[in-house]
Amino acid sequence: YSKDNNSEQLPGENLSSDRAMEFPFLALLVSGGHCQILKCLGIGKYTIIGGTLDDSLGEAFDKTARLLGLPVGGGGGPAVEALARDGDPKSVKLPIPLQKRKDCDFSYAGLKTAVRLAAEKICVERGVEAPEHLSHEDKANIASSFQHVAFRHVEIRLGRAMERVQKEDGIHTLAVVGGVAANKELRRRLDVLCSDQSEPWDMLVPPPRLCTDQGAMSAWAAVERIMVGSSDLADDQEVFARYPFSSTDS
Known about the structure:
Elements: E1 25-30, E2 35-42, E3 45-51, H1 57-67, H2 76-84, H3 109-126, H4 136-169, E4 173-177, H5 184-195, E5 202-204, H6 208-211, H7 214-227
Parallel strand pairs: 1-4, 4-5
Antiparallel strand pairs: 1-2, 2-3
Helix pairs in contact: 1-2, 1-3, 1-4, 2-4, 3-4
């Protein structure tokens, strides 16, 4: 999945329907460059509730795709997603990250290592040199198990954040954005998560083709800011290689 510039993909018009989103709402940002949960209060007004301690979800997909020798020309995420459909999500035992931490942060570095070690163990059992030489069935099981645990991690952290903002702010709308939001299994599981809340949540997700369209994201960011009269002059501006959405909510 591509690395996105999603800071202003969060608010505004719901790209998958004719209904406009209204503030405040909760956003799950999952891409090759970010993995965050944000409380969105207005254009440019975001509070980070949780973020990744190391790697992003999209990066974990990319590394898993390379480990299995999948074609990554169109992104490792779609390749793993397609392969995972042929596998058993519970066939390879993998640990859910941060089980002992009761916050909303993410971590995928340990899961990446666990996937590699599991793949190497299967290689020894099958007598092959590298994971890329495993059978389609073995690779599909690895991909499916990785995706299942990666998304279970999202469900746990996001569910905790949803309970918090619903109680504190009365929020019951979720926006899912970023390249990984194009994943159909993630959409399905988050839809179930929203429906299973004591007070069901509305979930809004852009069409898959727009989840990785950086041109659309950048253009819409400009539209949103212009509509509220927000503009940055070039003079006296600090430059950030990775734009900070806000300070972390304590």
